[in-house]
Design brief:
By secondary structure, this protein is mainly alpha-helical. The chain is about 65% helix and about 0% strand. Helix 2 packs antiparallel against helix 4. The protein is globular and about 60 Å long. It starts with a helix and ends in a 10-residue tail after the last helix. The relative contact order is 0.08.
């Protein structure tokens, strides 16, 4: 988030062609830093990568970095890819950029709303599998409700499908909130949500 705030100046001070060059070089530089540091296995992530049974699995081991708490390598990989993506895809006025801008103008709002929607989907699917609400409410100490049974769930394509559906479903809500924020600038607290 801090990098996002700091990069705001790139979008207000520089023209599109200059900004693209800066973003591309920043992205490539951060990715080279990631590759160099990850290759050494000395610092940046608690789990070292290792050579696997084939090149694909070795690559997956190399990019398998810890998200929670975010490791230096995780941040380097994701921020580097984001900079390169912005440099290559960002074309002002394109349909894709308009869609991305909507989410980018209301990130915290999206972040909060998507948790509620995912929990609602989780509860609905839990109950649809034939489980009772009482089973879902029987959580572990410190977790009041789980609505999850070990061994149940979706494979990776199913998770991606749910993710895409949630992102698409929240677009109209995010667009509405963006318009609301824009039209009600007198409400200072909206800038924080």
């Amino acid at each position: 988030m801090i990098v996002g705030y700091c990069c705001g100046k790139l979008f207000t001070r520089y023209e599109l062609s200059q900004r693209k060059k800066i973003l591309l070089w920043l992205g490539v530089g951060v990715l080279l830093f990631f590759v160099t540091l990850r290759f050494t296995n000395l610092y940046g992530d608690p789990f070292p990568w290792s050579v696997q049974k084939n090149n694909l699995y070795t690559l997956l081991s190399f990019v398998n970095v810890q998200k929670y708490p975010p490791s230096l390598l995780y941040l380097s990989l994701t921020i580097g890819v984001a900079f390169v993506f912005l440099a290559l895809v960002k074309k002002e006025g394109s349909g894709l950029s308009k869609i991305i801008i909507v989410y980018g103008r209301v990130p915290f709002f999206y972040y909060i709303i998507h948790f509620f929607l995912l929990q609602l989907i989780n509860i609905s699917l839990f109950l649809a599998r034939g489980h009772s609400a009482a089973e879902g409410m029987a959580g572990e100490p410190g977790i009041p409700f789980k609505f999850a049974i070990p061994g149940e769930g979706f494979d990776l394509p199913g998770v991606y499908l749910i993710w895409i559906v949630v992102v698409v479903a929240l677009y109209p809500v995010c667009k509405w909130y963006d318009r609301y924020k824009t039209n009600h600038r007198e409400k200072w607290w909206l800038s924080y949500l």
